[in-house]
Amino acid sequence: MTADKTETALPRRSARAARAAAPPAARTLPPSLAGDRSLPYPAISRELAELRHEIPGVHGCVLGGVDGLLITHNLQNAVDPNDLAALAATTFGLGRQVGMRLGQGDFQQSTVRNQGGYLSVYAVSEQALLAVIGTDTVNVARLHLHAPGVAGRIAALLTPVPTEA
């Protein structure tokens, strides 16, 4: 078999088009909150418990860092909280890229629906994410109304109080 000389070449990206499609510069992550003993864990736990009890069908919550490390959790099932913190960070990373590429701003929230339930991830601060897992019967609209308030209160708890010298 010989190649037909009448075939046209496939279009190629020009260097200009390749530069225009280059990914945005990587950003540096803030310091991790995982293992920070100065955090108000009892107050954070109350917020997580309130969310779990307020919304029927919520199995539990994970507070994780944007670096994928676990800060704290109140899961009531066999899901590994460390795995869920890593999945929340992955969800955040994808959502952040989508927001940047589409010019829609910073990551706020993402929900994944599976056959047996939901995973919703909410931005808490530059350092933290709230991941909520629920059954397939959880009222997602109610969760989306309630969880951002919880995330805001947790963000306030994570904000260091300046000390006077």
Structural overview:
The structure is a single chain. The protein is α+β, with helices and mostly antiparallel strands and 165 residues long. The protein has four helices and five strands. It has helices at residues 15-20, 41-54, 81-102, 140-158, and strands spanning 58-65, 70-73, 109-114, 117-123, 128-135. A hairpin with a 2-residue loop joins strand 3 and strand 4. The longest helix is centred in the middle third of the chain and has 22 residues, at 81-102. The radius of gyration is 21 Å and the shape is globular. The N and C termini lie far apart (84 Å).
Mean pLDDT: 86
Q: What's the β-strand tally?
A: 5
- Main sheet summary: 5 strands, antiparallel
* Tertiary shape: globular
> What's the gyration radius in Å?
21 Å
Strand content: 15-25%
Order of helices and strands: HHEEHEEEH
- Give the helix tally: 4
Characteristic key phrases:
single chain, about 160 residues, alpha+beta, 5-stranded antiparallel sheet, 4 helices, about 35% helix, about 20% strand, globular
Topology:
Elements: H1 15-20, H2 41-54, E1 58-65, E2 70-73, H3 81-102, E3 109-114, E4 117-123, E5 128-135, H4 140-158
Quick summary of this structure?
This protein is α+β, with helices and mostly antiparallel strands and 165 residues long.
